């Protein structure tokens, strides 16, 4: 454990020394392109940013995901589907679709990132979200297909590519 903590601390120091600082993550600036520097001895887990686009009077919802794999190659997906019941339902549908796509691509470890904090809360506190019990159960079953899967919140300003894909799909 000490070795892992040391490697984690060393990786964090490497990122701070070689990475670009973010000014204020909480406000919605236009998306920017960032170059992420990862030390060569750290195995990179593929990161998949997800988003959904939903409007109240629209007939369809748009879903989008953007994947950066271990070799920093980028893949993406976009899809239009029947309008979801709510924006949050569309976000969950996007997560389920992205997880299915990652599984179909034989990716066994993936870190999902979303700008929807309720989606993260829904997966960490499922009992607080009874209206989504079926969708949460589907996600829990999908998680069993992965060795390592995580979902975390990122600022909207860092989710520009997935947001654009979802809007284009809609």
TrEMBL record:
Entry-linked InterPro entries: RNase_H-like_dom_plant, RNaseH-like_sf, RNaseH_domain, RNaseH_sf
UniProt-listed Gene3D superfamilies: Ribonuclease H-like superfamily/Ribonuclease H
One Pfam family linked to the record: RVT_3
Top-rank taxon, per record: Eukaryota
Signal peptide: none
GO terms for MF: nucleic acid binding; RNA-DNA hybrid ribonuclease activity
Domain RNase H type-1: 50-169
Database matches in PANTHER family: POLYNUCLEOTIDYL TRANSFERASE, RIBONUCLEASE H-LIKE SUPERFAMILY PROTEIN, POLYNUCLEOTIDYL TRANSFERASE, RIBONUCLEASE H-LIKE SUPERFAMILY PROTEIN-RELATED
Record's protein name: RNase H type-1 domain-containing protein
Taxonomic lineage from the root: Eukaryota, Viridiplantae, Streptophyta, Embryophyta, Tracheophyta
